[in-house]
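quick one before i forget lol
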Amino acid sequence: MLLGYDETTKDVKFLFTDEKYLDAKYPDNTAKISNFWGSAGNGLSEFFIPINEFSDWQNYRDYKIENMQLINKGV
């Protein structure tokens, strides 16, 4: 799974869950947010996590990336 997070606030802003597509088109976690949003310099960075390790992915906006870890903002 590819998550895009705001480089400043660290809030997760973007989610792409099709791991088969990612593995086929962008092997070894090489996808970039610009591949999906069409432009670089959008203030987002990439974070990869297996979908089975993120059971609450439907609520991805409740999360942020801190020290390269997925953190629930409400905790």
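fyi The longest strand covers residues 2-6.
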